[in-house]
Design goal:
It is built from 5 helices and no strands. By secondary structure, it is mainly α. It has one domain. The two termini are about 25 Å apart.
């Protein structure tokens, strides 16, 4: 199995695990809120307006598992509102979904160049 295949599998497992955990924790959330919150990390694309170096920095920062782990961990450890932990799980699910589809962290050279492979046509 190639490194990319392993990372795609890891992404699928992170996506499924975070989604199942979230559904178990927050069954009362409206269904339409989930996709909206799941797309929030993609808003970091606006930083590409400042150039590819700044864009890649912010986009990659928003697409690290660590962000979701830190947010969810803080929420859980300090007994904060359940929503903080849930947002961390949504973040992890988003990153996992991206990795599962083969979207990796962006290279400075081009938006379509990622650490997994070149995406697009």
């Amino acid at each position: 199995m190639t490194t990319v295949a392993w990372q795609r599998l890891e992404g699928a497992l992170a996506f499924v695990g975070a989604t199942l955990w979230l559904w178990a924790r927050a069954p009362g959330w409206p269904w339409w809120l989930w996709p909206i919150l799941a797309l929030l990390p993609d808003l970091a694309i606006v930083f590409y307006l400042a150039g590819s170096r700044i864009g890649a920095l912010f986009y990659n920062g928003a697409h690290l598992y660590a962000g979701g782990l830190i947010l969810g961990g803080i929420g859980h450890a300090f007994g904060m509102d359940v929503t903080v932990t849930d947002l961390g799980l949504i973040w992890i699910a988003h990153v996992g979904f991206d990795r599962m589809l083969g979207y990796g962290l962006k290279e400075v050279s081009d938006f379509h160049d990622t650490h997994l492979a070149r995406i697009g046509r």
